[in-house]
Specification:
- It is a single chain.
- The chain is mainly beta.
- About 5% of the residues lie in helices and about 35% in strands.
- Strands 1, 2, 3, 4, 5, 7, 9, 11, 13, 15, 17, 19 and 22 form a 13-stranded mixed β-sheet that branches. Strands 23, 24, 25, 26, 28, 30, 32, 34, 35, 37, 39, 41 and 44 form a 13-stranded mixed β-sheet that branches. Strands 6-8-10-12-14-16-18-20-21 form a 9-stranded mixed β-sheet, with helices on one face.
- Strand 24, helix 6 and strand 25 form a beta-alpha-beta unit.
- The protein is globular.
Length: about 725
């Protein structure tokens, strides 16, 4: 075995093992300058060269759910319309929100729902049970109209706490969904009390003044505009929090007069998930993520404009951004945290000023690729040093680690495909499983009823109640294009996959969305080894906002197509792991995949698979990714979170990344305890971060060969690792 160190041009700094390291922005520029510029330009992928920035996009069709999805029509449903709170929950007269009337404080309707839900959480013996309960899933629905608020949307009363653990003061599994981004408006009245200069008060606050909370998962904000009015300089439009698989989709955040502290703020650890199609207009900061070391959102199709200080502010955080469009005279991105790790690709930073850079890279770590800059003094600056002028093909602020000392030093550049659009047809094309006999009650078997809905010829099948139980596998015919969970749970009482996609050839893409798969009574088998979806045909499959149950996550997927498998999209999911989850002979695009299996390897990439990853998280001491011969893996952003060291200290050390003959590009950072590890004392969680072989040569990278993630004991950054074959 040979253990190689990276081939690095002369630079500054020494790593923790005495290896020459190129930490910081200037050194990264030196590393790229050492390459043949013609080679760097030639390596630019066709996908990057042809990419057209869109920034934030609104849905083409309004999200009008069928009547049976609403509690005021169907008492067993989960959606609560803010104009029907009295009918849905028995609220006092005058609680309902009223569109278009500035004298009505519609925060009353929102907060009644939140307090009603908070009472349910407080009634639990242990609020952590809410993660896996199948009867505590709700959504607040904002129909079309402008709904004025005079105060903050936030639950009240005593702080909800976790017994013998950290304070829980945020929401769990709570969603605010609108009908359409541009037509469902939550608007703060002008000159609202409590939103003056220096107040820093949110219009929508997903927390209650917490600084840490790792249980409030699956929160969502979708298809609304949040408008802070005029004369509210202390306003924060959205103070968002959500661990694991939270999401914001198709949201506009607007200041009426440009004033305000921040449009979207991530103030609490742990905040992660997938955030897409967000427009922020005005405020000091468009998007602000400051202090906590584990704030790690994956963000795509983002527009920030008309900010007064910076478009995006990054403290000691780990964001991954793609298609950021900034229209500003201030810096588009300002990185101020020493422990920051920022990935920025396929972005356009426009407007600019002759006195400021597009990216104010004060400290931390940065990977940038295919970034256009217009009007700024420079594209990337660190202090008084200009690092990059003009367009960025690829920039790495630290050393480039290579499998082959003489091999390629650029990222792989796999072709990127956008998430397929899921259809939203007229309600006549929706099949309600209840209409076909599904009871949605424990002790009943809804297999036949759900199968009948799937066989109805409708393009959308939806689940209005909280949970459904099945005893066998549901066959998805080619006519079904969307399985709409509406945040239901589906539980299996057998060891069989829940859905099988086995007919229709390539056909139209199938989307399964907003569904919680739970292990049920057979969780030891069903939650670990049996997949939610058995994919046996080359049909394109998109899984979005899927939680597969349990703290360790259930099994998400098994591919069984003969020959070339169907294209696959994982978006804001968890549960992709061994033993049945190996991806083979197919192209896969993952956007924030959050598997926390601590007992088996995560993300097995098999022969013939090409897998592109935009942000991920794995916890504990098991493998993050394994790459087989003939496979390709490109990871652009993510978190190797060894803070939950289940298997560490057991004597059998795992390796985070294992290659056995495939190609890979890795750009990511770790997160872990900022204290000595208990066993053995002062040891890191992963001693060996990467072990990669081509059958002849083996390369290992140890934790202390990598650049340090400043401020986090024994934590590291992979600025760029490249193993590419000719």
């Amino acid at each position: 075995m040979t253990k190689d160190t990276p081939s690095i041009p002369a630079g500054v700094g020494i790593s923790r093992r005495g290896i020459l390291a190129l930490g910081g922005g200037l050194a990264g520029a030196a590393a790229l300058a050492a390459l043949d510029p013609r080679q760097a330009r030639a390596a630019m992928t066709p996908a990057a060269a042809s990419f057209v920035n869109t920034g934030a996009r609104a849905a083409a069709t309004a999200s009008h759910y069928p009547a049976a999805a609403f509690m005021h029509v169907n008492p067993g449903a989960k959606f609560i319309d803010i104009t029907k709170v009295e009918e849905s929950l028995g609220a006092p007269a005058g609680t309902n929100a009223v569109a278009g009337d500035p004298s009505v404080d519609c925060a009353v309707a929102f907060n009644y729902i939140l307090d009603w839900y908070a009472a349910k959480l407080r009634a639990l013996p242990d609020v952590r049970d809410a993660q896996n309960r199948v009867d505590l899933s709700y959504a607040i629905y904002v129909p079309e109209g402008t709904f004025h608020v005079h105060s903050t949307i936030q639950y009240s009363g005593p702080v909800i706490t976790i017994p013998n653990s950290a304070v829980l003061s945020a929401w769990i599994h709570m969603r605010i969904l609108g009908a359409h981004r541009d037509r469902s408006v939550i608007r703060l009245v002008d000159g609202a009390t409590g939103f003056g200069a220096g107040e820093q008060r949110a219009v929508i606050d997903y927390s209650q003044a917490a600084t840490f909370d790792n249980w409030s998962a699956q929160n969502i904000l979708r298809d609304v505009t949040v408008h802070t009015g005029s004369g509210n300089p202390g306003a924060i439009a959205v103070d968002f929090f959500g661990a694991n698989n939270a999401a914001i989709d198709r949201v506009a955040i607007v200041s009426g007069d440009g004033q305000g502290v921040a449009g979207l703020q991530f103030p609490i650890g742990i905040t992660s998930g997938y955030y897409s199609d967000i427009l922020v207009d005005g405020f000091d900061y468009g998007i602000e993520m400051r202090e906590y070391h584990f704030i790690s959102p994956t963000m795509e199709h983002i527009t920030v404009r008309n900010q007064r200080v910076a478009g995006v502010l990054v403290g000691d955080c780990l964001p991954t951004l793609r298609d950021l469009v900034s229209e500003n005279s201030v810096p588009a991105v300002q990185i101020v945290g020493a422990g920051a790790h920022v990935v920025l690709i396929d972005s356009a930073l426009r407007g600019g000023s002759a006195t400021t850079p597009a990216i104010d890279f004060q400290t931390g770590h940065l990977f940038a690729r295919n970034v256009e800059s217009q009007g700024y003094r420079s594209t990337i600056e660190q202090g008084s040093t200009t690092l990059v002028r003009g367009a960025v093909d690829e920039y790495v602020s630290g050393p480039v680690f290579r499998f082959d000392e003489h091999g390629e030093s650029r990222s792989m550049g796999l072709k990127i495909e956008e998430i397929p659009d899921a259809p939203w047809p007229a309600h006549r094309d929706w099949a309600n499983v209840d209409d076909y006999g599904a009871a949605g009650a424990e002790g009943t078997d809804d297999t036949a009823a759900i199968q009948a809905a799937l066989n109805s010829g409708r393009t959308v099948v939806y689940f209005p109640k909280q949970a459904y139980w099945v005893s066998g596998t549901l066959q998805v015919p080619p006519q079904v294009e969307r399985i709409e969970g509406t945040f239901s749970s589906i539980l299996s009482t057998s060891g069989e996959p829940i859905f099988r996609v086995a007919s229709g050839g390539r056909g139209k893409p199938l989307t399964i969305i907003d569904l919680h798969r739970s292990g049920g009574p057979n969780s030891a088998v069903d939650g670990t080894a049996v997949p939610l979806v058995d994919h046996a045909m080359p049909r394109t499959l998109s899984l979005r906002n899927i939680r597969t149950g349990g703290a360790l996550g259930g099994q998400l997927y098994r591919g069984r197509a003969q020959g070339r498998g169907g294209d696959l999209f994982f978006t804001n999911t968890n549960g992709h792991k061994a033993p049945t989850g190996e991806l083979r002979n197919q192209k896969v695009w993952m956007r924030w995949e959050n598997t926390e299996a601590k007992d088996v390897a995560n993300h097995p990439i098999g022969a013939g698979a090409e897998v592109w990853v935009l942000g991920y998280k794995v916890e504990g001491g098991t493998q993050n990714f394994t790459v087989a011969p003939g496979a390709k893996l490109e990871v652009l952003g993510g978190v190797c979170n060894s803070y939950a060291p289940t298997s560490f200290g057991s004597g059998a050390e795992d390796v985070a990344f294992i290659g056995t003959g495939g190609e890979m590009t890795l750009v990511l950072a770790s997160n872990g305890q900022d204290a000595p590890h208990p066993e053995p004392a002062n040891a890191p969680q992963f001693h060996t971060v990467l072990r990669d072989t081509d059958g002849t040569t083996t390369k290992e990278i140890m934790w202390d060969e990598l650049p340090e993630r400043t401020g986090r004991r024994h934590q590291w950054v992979i600025p760029l690792y490249v193993h590419r074959t000719a």
